[in-house]
# Entry
Amino acid sequence: MLRETLIAAPMIHIAKTRLIALFQVVALLFATAALAEPQTMSVEQANAAVQSGELILLDVRTPGEWKETGVPKGAWPVNLQDKDFGKKLSAILNRNPDKKIGFICRTGNRSGYVFKAVQKYGVQNIVDVSEGMAGSAAGPGWLKTGLPTVSDKEALAALPTDFTAK
# Structure
């Protein structure tokens, strides 16, 4: 009996070690897959994702820009220059963990800045719609593509006060 126990103990240890190694490989594969997800999205992809409820698109432009061109239909107008932008963004990220969050601005500069700043903190599930509203090197943009917009007033009225997607 003692001999069987002495033989079984190392075998159990080896099995546990192999199981732990297997879990580590699986975790690494999932982490790699998460990092491999696209970090940018075309305006067409963003529009489809917003309409299907997969994406919360934050229009980080100023109220004057929203008034001038309208806001992408379904997007949340959240002014990057607002003194409470950080608090609002934090609330949006924390209250919508199952949603992908996208950023759009006029030409991709501000949205790219926000994307990189948020990404530095390890936040996953975010994308930059780098074409922007007016277009950029990434593509023609929301307006030239003819995607739907709503007025600034309509977009602000539809913005959830608690920043939680329904």
About this structure: Residues 2-36 form the longest helix (35 residues).
